[in-house]
Every structure is written in structure tokens, then in C-alpha cells.
User: Fold this.
Amino acid sequence: MAYQALYRTWRPNQFGGVVGQDHIIRVLTGQITGGKIAHAYLFSGPRGTGKTSLAKVFAAAVNCTKRQGSEPCGECGTCLANASGSAVDILEIDAASNNGVDSVRDIRDRVTLLPAMGSYKVYIIDEAHMLSKGAFNALLKTLEEPPPHVIFILATTEAFRLPATIRSRCQRFDFKRIPVDTITALLKTVADAEQYTYDSEALTMIARAAEGGMRDALSILDQCAASGDVTAQNVSGTLGGSDMHALYTLAAYITAYDEKAALEQLRDILDAGADTRTLIKDLADVFRRMMWAAAGADLGGSGELAPLAKQFGKNACIRALDILIDKEYEMRQNLRADIVLETAVMAVMCPEDDASSGDRHRLEKLEGRLQRLETEGIRVQAAKAEPEPAQPAPNTEASPIPENKPEQKAEAAPKTPAAPKAPAAQTPPEDAAAITEVWEKLLAALKTHAYFVFTHAVKAKEVLRVGSLLEIKYDEADSVSADYMHEDDAQKKMMGQLNSIAPDILSVSIVTEHPLQEEPIDDNIKKLFGTEIEQV
Assistant:
């Protein structure tokens, strides 16, 4: 018999086997026992968290002929057919490869057919966000009012890509990332059942690397077990990381500010075959646990890092995490990831300015940001209104009549200039710097959490603050970006980030500036008055 991957062998066939999603199981089992089953469900969440597995268990439970309570019996004909993948009443559709209108029309034509064995015909549409716009439109009416014997379950990792008209017709359940402890416990159960030789540290490393996905964790365990015992060294080699001893040694050199030893240790780890992107994540995890240890808490392995945390300090750990997270993002855009990693390690060991020069250091950073934004064509101000230009001093003497213009009347009254306006007060540099800092933080947050909004926000020409209003100005050439930023979705995403960056900013205004164009001067006016324009 062909070997079957662990994540398929250990796919749950009852509600009790689905881990980490108790808030969803509680509602679904209550609906089954209470006979209040909905006609459409939307399962959304990260990959490998049990969306499809729970959909299949739910489909088996509603069709089980010998069900006791909410769990499927696993013995009746419907349950056996579902376990073998031959159930005719449970249809799993991959929307990634069947995303056209014709595929949905075929579903729409078949929903009128009664189930062959069970009580319901269940359609599980996996990767539902891949359906085309036409397919969604074709599904809309059927999803709203299907026959009483039909249940739709839409599973997706990107629920926001589904039209609101589809989402509003479904009962939505958001799956959470599975905690590390929960994944570790299940990996131990699987390893014991499969008679693997393992150590606890290795299972914890696998659970962390899975990033909340049980399927990923089982796949990594499967891969490690194929090459020998499941040890920490084996897991590190499989994941492309470094062993924990080498990583802790590197952290010790960093906390001691021993630059030469830290770079040499880093080189040895990379020469041993460690992947740079995995290594910087592992190093960030070490400083994260050091931060916990410095705060008197424990995050799995934080205890042995306590001496380093005490030596380095909580604030230094936080600063190291900020640097490593920024560099990890930069690493994705850079072909020389090893150089980025080296600069990250060196940056962590660069001591911060002392308290006496802290204010000067922050001011220099803000001035640098302001200069960089103005270089890119973005002018940042913090004022209540655009300052008006100062007028020249009035000329109290009448202009003499030019001798070369005899036709001009001598008795013409001289032009009296308007009273000069007082020069507008310049924006204090610290206010401009403060708005610069808010704007840069907003751009950074949008780049991480709402990249499409960031691509339009970064084209702004000028940022102006008026009380609790942030005014963002665009040139007419960037009117497309300005129009997008006017949309409710973009405004909500900006305000969502501003609420944590600058809570005193309550609204955002988008302004498009149109360049002033001089109108042509009529030929008759030219003959009478000439072509010179005098400002009065």
C-alpha cells in the first residue's frame, strides 16, 4: 500500500479531533443537536487550521443515520462512504481550478437533485476566493435561497476577497491560529503512535515553525522523521536554521557587545548551511524570549536566557526586536540577505545615545525624515491655514508718467497699493517634525497592513494638519490615487492605523490641487494696455 502523508492519515473524522477551534465547534454541534442548521457557512482563517477538515466532519454529522448527539458514528454507510471519499452527497469543489461561470452553473443545475443516502447534499467549495466575479454572480441567488436539502460551505484563507453580497448570506466562522502548546501536544500523540524517537525540544521547534498551522506541523514532522530521529539538530537542519546552542552563543556575544566574536559566530552558523531568513526569525525569537524573561515571565525556554536578559536589559531587547523585524522585511527585497543579516546583528550591538543626548538624537532623526520627504516631493506642514505670502512695502510716491508714452494722460490718478499684510508666522520646526513622524509611521503601518492603500498614500504631495484633521494633498496628475483615497475602505484602513499612531487625529481629508492656468490676453486689450500685468 502506498505511503500516506501524516496530515492525511491524522485528518480528524470527528469534532473531538479538531484542535484549537473550540469556539466554532461549540456553535456547530449546538446547531446539529438543536436542529437549527443553516443553509450556508463561510469558514475563513489561516492555512492548515482545520477549515476543510471541520467542513467534512460537519457534512458527515448532518448525514449520519446513526448519530448519537452531534458526533458522526463512523459506522453507517454514509460515514464509511465519507471516510473513503466516495460519498455522493458530499461534494468537495476546488475553486482554484473550477472558478468559471460554467462550473457554478453546473452546481446550480444539480442542487435540485435530492440526496442519495443522507438528509443533505453538502457542497464544500475550497479556496472560494478564487471564484471569478461572474461565478459569484451566478452563485448569488442559489446561495441565498437554496433548496431545503442543500448546504453550502465556503472555505477560504482570504475572506475579504469575497463580495459582501456573498459574505452576508453566510454564517461566518473565523478560524484562529493554533497555539504552540496545542500543536506540540498533538505532535507528541502522533509521534508516540507512529513510534518515532523524538525529544520535546524538537517538537516545540516544529510547532513554532508551523506558525499556527497543524497541517504544516505534521508535514515538518513527517519530513524530519524520514531522515532519522526527531531531534533538535535534525529539525534545525531540515528547516534550514541553526541549532539552539549556536544561536544562544550568538545571542551571548551580542548581549556582551563583542562585535568580532558575534560576526565570527554568525559566519560559522551560515557556513554550516543555515538559511538566512530562518536564522533572523530564530534570532528574533531568542530576543523575544529574553524580553519575556526580563519582564519576569516565561515563554518556553526563557528561563535559561534570564542571565542574558538581565545583562542586556528589557529596553535593549525591545530595540533588538524592532531592528530584527525591520531587517527581516528588508531581507525579502534584497538579494544579499547575508549582508542584511550581518548589518542587523551589528545594529543591535550599536549602543543607544545616553539620556543627555537623547533629545538631540531624536531631533536629528526627525529632521532627516523631513528632509527626505521634501526631497521626494512631499511638503509637510503643521498649521491651521496656508500662510499667505508677505506683500511688498507700499510705495507712497506716485509713479511718474513715462516720456515715451505721450498718449498717457498726465492727470491720471496714481495707483494706490493695498495695505501690506503682516508676514505669516512660520511653522515651528518641531511641529513639522511631529507631523513628519506621524506620516512616516502611518506609511509604515499601511505598508505592512494595507499595502494597496500605501501605494496610493505615498504619492501625496503635501500633508497638512488642521486641528484634529489630517489633510492629504495630491497633484492633479495623481488624481487616480486621490480618488481611491476618497473611498470608504481606504479611509477606514487609514483611520484604523491612525487610531493607534495619533489618537488625537479624528478625520482625514483628501484634496486634489489643480494648477493655475493663465488665460490668454485678448489682442484688443494688448493694444490698449500692453502685455505687462501689474499686481495690485
In short: Residues 429-449 form the longest helix (21 residues). The chain has 23 helices and nine strands.
